Amino acid sequence: MYRNFRMVSYVVFGRGCYNQTKDILGQQRDKEKSDMVYLVDDVFKGAEFGDSIPLQGDDMLIWVNVDDEPKTKLVDALVEQIKGAMDKNPAGIVGVGGGSAMDLSKAVSVMMTNEGSSAEYQGYDLPKNPSLYHAAIPTLSGTGAEVSRTCVLTGPEKKLGINSDYSVFDQIILDPELIRGAPDEQRFYTGMDCYIHCIESLEGTFLNEFSKSYGQKSLELCREVFLNKRTEESEDKLMMASYCGGMSIAYSQVGVCHALSYGLAYVLGTHHGIGNAIVFDYLDEFYPEGVKEFRIMLDKAGVELPRGLCANLTEEQFEKMINVSLAMELLWENALGKDWKKIMTREKAREMFERM
Ligand code: NAD
Ligand code: ZN
C-alpha cells in the first residue's frame, strides 16, 4: 500500500508577500466565523514586526513563549484560553514564528475541535474531527514544520507529534524577508536541521524517487546557503530548502541523528536544531560524507558545538534516554534496515551518548 498523504492547500512565496496576509486571511472570514487567533513567538513582542500583525475586528493575538519546545500542557492551556475568550470558534489559527510557534498553532487548531487533552493525540491518525483552518507565517527556516503532517509535542509520557492529515496547514505564507533577522547561530542550527533531514532521507532505506527529488534539491540549496557567501538570495534559498527538505521526509523518514537527538531532548530538554547538530558530529560511521560536509559548514558559520552534555547523567537518565531513542523504530529501520536492532543495541546507544 502506498501512503496517500495530504499536502498544504495554499502557498504564497516571495519577498514582501507577508503584506498580503490580510487579504489572504480575509477570504476565510464570514458572518459566522469572523475572527482569527494569532499565536506569535514572543520574541517579536514590542518589535516592529510584532506590531505589524494585521489584526482586524475582534482578532486575538496571543504571545507564545518557546524557551521550552511545545508541551501538551501549553497546547491545552492555549485552547482553554481561546475558548474562554470567544463564544464561538474563530475563523482560523495563525502561527507566526519558527518550528515551535508553527507546531503550537497546528496542535491548537486540532484541539479546538477534538475533545480532551492533546496528550491523548500524540501518535498516528488519532484526531477524529477536522481541525480549524490554520495558517503559518515562518520567521525561521529549516524544520520543514510548514509542510509536514506532524506537530512535535512533549507530553507527560513521551515526545511525539500529532501525526494527522488535520495537522497539515491550509495556508503557508513564505516571505524570505521575515527570516532575515534571525540570530546567526539559531539560523545555523535550524538550517542544519534541514541539512540533516536531507542526508537522513537520501541515505535511508525508505527512499523513493519522490523523496529523492525533493531531498536532492534541498541539499543543493543547503550547500549554496551554508558553503557560499551570504547574498541577497540566501534567505529565499533557505526557505525553499526547508520546504523541499520537509517534503522529502514526508514520504521517507529521518534517521540515526533524529532518533538519538530525541533522547537528548526528552531527558535534557535540548532543542531540536542544536541537539541534532551535537549528535550529527558523532555520526561519521553512519553518514561519513554528510558529517564531513557538516563540519565544513560548522567551521564557516563559526559555531562552537556544546560538549559534555551527558557527562553527569545518572543511570536512570541514561536508561530513559536510550528508551526514548530506541522507541523511534521507524527512524532506525529507515537508517539501518529491518535488522537495525542487531546494529543499534542498547550498549551501542549508551556508548554513543556517553561520548556526547
Ligand atoms: P524555534 O521555533 O524553537 O525558535 C528558536 C528560537 O529562535 C526561539 O528563541 C525563537 O524565539 C527565535 N526566533 C524565531 N524566529 C526568529 C526571528 N526571525 N528573529 C529572532 N528570533 C527568532 O526554532 P526552530 O528550530 O524553527 O523549531 C524547533 C521546533 O520545531 C522544535 O519544537 C521541534 O520539535 C519542531 N520541529 C517540528 C517539525 C515538524 O515537522 N512539525 C520538524 C522539525 C522540528
Ligand atoms: Zn528535524
UniProtKB/TrEMBL annotation:
- The answer to whether UniProt assigns keyword Flavoprotein to this entry is no
Alcohol dehydrogenase iron-type/glycerol dehydrogenase GldA domain ranges (all copies): 11-176
Do you know which SUPFAM superfamilies this protein is assigned to?
A: Dehydroquinate synthase-like
Which intervals hold domain Fe-containing alcohol dehydrogenase-like C-terminal? 189-288
UniProt GO MF annotations: alcohol dehydrogenase (NAD+) activity; metal ion binding
Q: InterPro entries, alphabetically?
A: ADH_Fe/GldA (IPR001670), ADH_Fe_C (IPR056798), Alcohol_dehydrogenase_Fe (IPR039697)
Key words of the record: Oxidoreductase
Q: What name appears for this protein in its UniProt entry?
A: Iron-containing alcohol dehydrogenase
State the organism named in the record: Desulfatibacillum aliphaticivorans
